[in-house]
Each structure stands twice: as C-alpha cells, then as structure tokens.
Amino acid sequence: MISISSYVIVAAVLFGIGTLGVLISRNIIILFMSLELMLNAASLAIIAFSRELNVIDGHVFVFLILAVAAAEAAVGLAMVITLFRNKETLNIDRFNLMKW
Amino acid sequence: MNLDAVIFIISAIVAVLGASMMIFQRNPVMAVLSFMVSLLAQAVLYIQLDALFLGAVLIIVYAGAVLVLFLFVIMLLNLRTTKELGPSSSLMRHLGKYFLSFLLIMEFVFIIKSSFFKGASLVGVMNMKPEGFGTVTSVATLLFTKYLYPFELTSILILVAIVGAVVMARKDKNIDRPTENKLGKN
Amino acid sequence: MLEIVIASSIKVIIVVIAVLTGCAYATYMERKLVAHFQHRIGPLYAGPYGLLQPMADAVKLIFKEDIVPDKVERYTYALAPVISFIPAMLIFAVIPFGKDTSVFGYGIKMVLSDLNIAVLFIFAITSLGIYGIILGGWSSGSKYSLMGGLRSSAQMISYEVSYGLSIIGVILIANTLSLRELVNQQASDSIWFFSHWYVWRQPLGFLLYLTCAIAETNRAPFDLPEAESELVGGYHTEYSSMRFSMFFIGEYANMLAVSAVGATLFFGGWQGPFVNTIPLLGIVWFVLKVFLFMFFYIWLRATFPRFRYDQLMNFGWKILLPLALFNTMLTSLLVALKVI
Q1: How many CB pairs under 8 A join B and C?
Q2: B60·C139 Cβ contact <8 A
Q3: Mean pLDDT per 10-residue run, chain C (340 residues)?
Q4: I need a labelling partner for C227 at 20 to 30 A (CA). Which of B23, C52, C177, C215 fits?
Q5: A79 contacts on B by Cβ (under 8 Å)
Q6: Would you call C185 an interface residue with chain B, using a CB distance cutoff of 8 Å?
Q7: Which of C271, C279, A10 is nearest to B11 (CA)?
Q8: Domain spans of chain C?
C-alpha cells in the first residue's frame, strides 16, 4: 500500500525542482517550463488530497488549473516571441532594460 | 511489494528524473522532451490516484497542446545554438539556489511527515472509494452544477488569452513596411 | 496472474504483427489502386499480381545505406521516426476487433485493453503523434524539413480541435467513452444490420471526422507537410533507409488507426451479419470496414489536387470548426429533447 503522503512528497520534490529551474535557468523558455512544472506539482498534490478525502472537488480545481496553464502558455509564448524579435536572444540576463 | 507500489516507484522516479533533466538541459528541444517524459509519468500517477479523466486531459492539454506550442515557438525562432546563453555557469555560483530549493523540499517533506498529517495520510490507494470516483461523469456533474460559474469564467479567460496572444505575437506593421516596400521595388 | 500475462502478451504480439502486415499491404493496395486510377497496372512482377512487392520494398529499405546528414541534432534525429511510429500502434490497444470468444476453454476478449475512457485515450495518443513529425523536421537541420515540420504542427493542432469535436456527437448519443460499449450499442439482429450504426444519427459528425482524420494523418489533399512539389519531402527529406521506412510505416499505421477508430465509432466496429452464429466473422467485418476507409483515402489521393496552405488553414478554422461546434450543439439539443 502506498500512502497518500508519498504522492504528496513526489509533488513536493517536483515543486522544488521547478523552483530550482526558475532560479538557475537563463533560457526563458526553460524558465517558463519550470513554472508549468510547479503548476503541475500543485495539481498532483491536489489530486492526492482529493483522493485522500474522497471528494471530487479537487479534480475540478485541477481541471481549471489545466485550462489556466494552457492560456498562460499561449500568452507567455507570444511574449517570448515579441522579446526575441526585440533582442534576438532568449537569455534572460539580457532583458535588463529596466534595471537601473 | 505489489504491482501498485512498483508502478508508483517507477513513475515517481521517471517524473522526478524527467523534471530535473529539463532544468539542466541547454538545448530547449531536449528540455521540452524531458518535460514530456515527466508529464507522462505524472499522468500515470494521476491514474493511480483514480483521476482517470484528468490523467487523459493532462496528456491531451499539456503533451498534446502546450508542449507542442513550445516546440512550435522554438522552431519558429529557429533556436539552434545555445551560444548566446554564454558558458554554463559553475556549480559554485548557484550553490545558494540549490541549497534554497533543497531547503524548500525538505520543509515540505517535514510538514508532510509531521504529526499534522499522520492521522490522515496512511490510507492506501486501493481502499474503499465512492462509486465512480474520478470518472468523466463524476467530474462533469460537479463541473456543470456546483462549479458552473468558475467554468464559464475560464472560457472567458481563454478567450482573453487568445486575443492577447494574437495581439502580442503579431508583427508590428509600421516596422515591417519599409522592408516589404524595398522587396517590392526590387 | 501468469496466465493473464502470457495471454495478453500473445494477444499483443498478434495485434502488432497484424497491424504491421496491414501497413505493408496498405502500401501495396495504395500503389495498385492509384495505378489503376491512372490506367496503369502497378506492381506486377514480385509474386502473383505483385503480392510480394511489400516484402521486396522492406528488404530494399533495410539494406539501404543509412545516411545521416552532417548538421542533424543526433538524439532527436534518431528519436523522431520512433515517436511517429509508436503512438499509431498504441491506438490499437483499445480498439475492439471482434466478438469475445473462447479458445481451448479460455475466454478471450477481442480487445487488448478495455478502458472505460478509451475515446479520451485515443485523443491523448493522437495528440502525441505530432511529436515525431515536428522533431523530424526540426532535427534534420534543413530548410525543407523545418518548413514541413512547422506546417504539419500548425495543421495538426488546428485540425485536432475539430477532430475532437466531431467525435463528441457520438459520445453524447452513446453516453459512454468505452469503445466496447459503443460497439455493443450499434448491434442489430434484424436483416438491416446497419440500421443502428452511428453514421445515420451523426452524418455531419462523420463527414467532419473523415475530413479531420485525413488532415491529421497528413494525407492528400491535406498533405502539405510533405508536399513533394514545394518541399521535396517535407519533414522526412533528410531521412533514409530504415529511419525513413519508420516514418512511412508510421503514416500508414496512423491511417489504419484513424480508419479503425472511424469504423468503430460510426460503422459498428466488428458488428455485422451472422456475427452471433460465427463469432470469428467479427474480425472479418472489422478488417473489411477498415480497408473500406483505406480505399476511400486512396481514392481521394488519386482524385484531388493539394490544397494551398492558406486555404487549408481557412478551411480548418473558418468552416470545419464552426460546423463541428454546430454539430455538437445540435446533437446536445437533440439528445436533451430525447429525439435521437
């Protein structure tokens, strides 16, 4: 028998990896995917708790999270394209125009 | 060691490995592929937790649409070299960040393992569950009754996202016109 | 436990071999039919009526030199053909291909895995099929391949929406996502064995499915990703030998898969006359229906010229998607009013 807490621990580890990715990556696309990974980790935890408490409401939340993540990806990638047009790079350290 | 445990361990390891490969890749295409592998493993975990519908939706939405969009953008910008990112930074420079993330994970694990959880979290996956838990019917019933309002709001959100993406990704016509005219004259 | 493992392994092997053979003979069928559509004869010399031509082709492709161009991205280049091939095969895991029988006292389910979310599974796997083409186009390091990959990813994402919506009508009527249930609902004992097929209750949905399936499998007249006249070979320009043939088999396996799904959803799957008396006849009907779809595909290829790219996109977003939405709304209205 696998306890629910092991699923939550997997979710926590995934969340930590996502955080690390946001902190260390310099490629804006990989940074963006790390954000998505953090969302996924949260969804996994919600589903685990939902199973634990035997309420299906958590599934609805995860469904909405997925929809929001898809919308976010569309807008975010459009921003990436615009950024690339302006700077010809995806290196996040180069977008420092506001840093004075 | 039953089959459930074996499947859980394998997919948990694959999910974590795929995710960590993603953040350490320099080639964005390989990063997307690693993320996809991680997602497939996460879908297995979802299905183990009786979230059949969401497991399928995770693959359809993420692997089928979002990651394809990432790949599409990578191809559109034709990002072949990783030179512009500079040399890969040393471990020492990022040591603090690694430590912070490790601390974060340990904190979570500590909370999960603490007494706050102990009474509740020892239930196995195979224990009794309500009839039809996690099936399409059960999720849909809730989605279209109790959560109808957020559901409709999501559709508006997606519409806004579509418009926003189109507006942002569209080429600015004022900037492009001179080159087009030049091409036309030649 | 062990018995189940052995029985399922045997079933898997049989299905894989059957699908691969089906792919091989689909190429033969295509060459022969296109030849006759164009008043030619087609393959003739290898075996009687050229029946051994697929074998000859396979041997040729295996023994050809595998040329890897200089500028490829190694891993993704090697991975792409495999990724394009595997999802197509996976779809057959949920498709019921016959009436349940018993052999030597063992009850045999004529489906590899009777999922109760089979239709969603098919969506999920179909959406993974894009990766092979995108990665093949990207990793080849050539302009033609990149253009082919870009075109195909845009095309497949656009048509996947209508593809999904076209099936929803059937699901609304059937009230289930299990393909086994769907097939059982289309059974009919009378002489009008086809009277309960969903194609009669979902004519618009069926036409939409057919169109989107062609676009999803990158076949003519929607074969922009590999348009020979503009893009040389599209995403598989730089591939040769076995890797090329993996793409090729993948395309045909995809065609077989969408044909099988179409036959199951709209044409009653393995249901047909005399199935109840001779259960094995179910497989025959199923294969017949699948190859009827294949015939239609090849017929289209020989008849229609290729779309232009903007026409394709306009058609997908401005005609197919509104029609699919209309069909979904109409069907849900009719189901709510208990008309169908």
Answers
A1: 75
A2: no
A3: 80 87 87 87 82 84 81 80 85 82 70 81 85 82 79 81 87 85 79 78 87 83 70 73 82 88 85 76 85 88 82 86 90 84
A4: C52
A5: 168
A6: no
A7: A10
A8: 69-336
| CATH number, span A4-94 | 1.10.287.3510
Enumerate neighbours of B (3 or more CB pairs within 8 A).
A, C
Q: What are phi and psi of A79, to 5 degrees?
A: -65, -40
Q: What is the ipTM of this complex?
A: 0.89
Are B109 and A12 inside 8 Å of each other by CB? yes
pTM for this one? 0.86
pLDDT by residue (tens digit) across C31-84? 888 888 888 888 888 878 878 888 888 888 888 887 777 777 778 888 888 888
Chain B residue with Cα closest to A73: B66
Interface contact A59-B129, CB threshold 8 A: no
Tell me whether residues B75 and C141 touch, CB distance under 8 A: no
| Residue contact B146–A57, C-beta within 8 A | yes
H-state helical runs in C140-240: 143-174, 179-185, 198-201, 203-216, 228-231
Measuring CA to CA, which residue among A6, A44, A58, A5 is closest to residue B117?
Answer: A5
Which CATH topology does B1-81 take?
Four Helix Bundle (Hemerythrin (Met), subunit A) (1.20.120)
Give C289-310 pLDDT, tens digit per residue: 888 888 888 888 888 888 787 8
